[in-house]
Here is the input.
Amino acid sequence: MDGFLILISSPSGGGKTTIIHKILETDPEKFIYSVSATTRKLRPGEIHGKDYFFLTEKQFFEKVEKKYFLEWEEVHGYYYGTDSDFIKKNIIDGKCVLLDLDVNGSLRVAQNYEGSAITIFIAPPSVDELVKRLKKRNTDSEQEINKRLKRIPLEMKKSKQFDFVVANNKLSETVNNVIKIIEKAGG
Here is the structure.
């Protein structure tokens, strides 16, 4: 059986990365995480190759020229890209590939993999809660947080184009709801 893509998006601080890691814990044989490349700086606690592949802009655009990325996007002043070969190999191997992408990336990949992908938007409980989460993780400056907050209206508007929207009010319920969606989709 071929695998499929589970494209998960949310505003910064919406909980998508935490949710993805919780899903991975439920069945490591079935689920695999697509580690994106980025030009963003390494945050405290992040590991190169596990959280992201941290690249310089020069390295990133060399990969763009070689058509290494399935999709790539500038988000919050940094570039992010998805390894095309990794995706193809794991779909053939029957894996459910979890991707943590911005809204534009998710919608673009879903178009290219129609019938083999589902899009799930994780909706925050409120903008106030997002601000609290972004400040609590203590990884971004006030200026960076404001840049991320300015993008929320675009992300919320684009969420209407997703296959599913799941409110992230309580983490355990959100994870269970996302797993149910994946199971119904065939994963």
Remarks:
- Residues 4-182 form a domain with the Rossmann fold fold (CATH 3.40.50.300).
- The mean pLDDT is 91.
- The chain has one domain: 4-182.
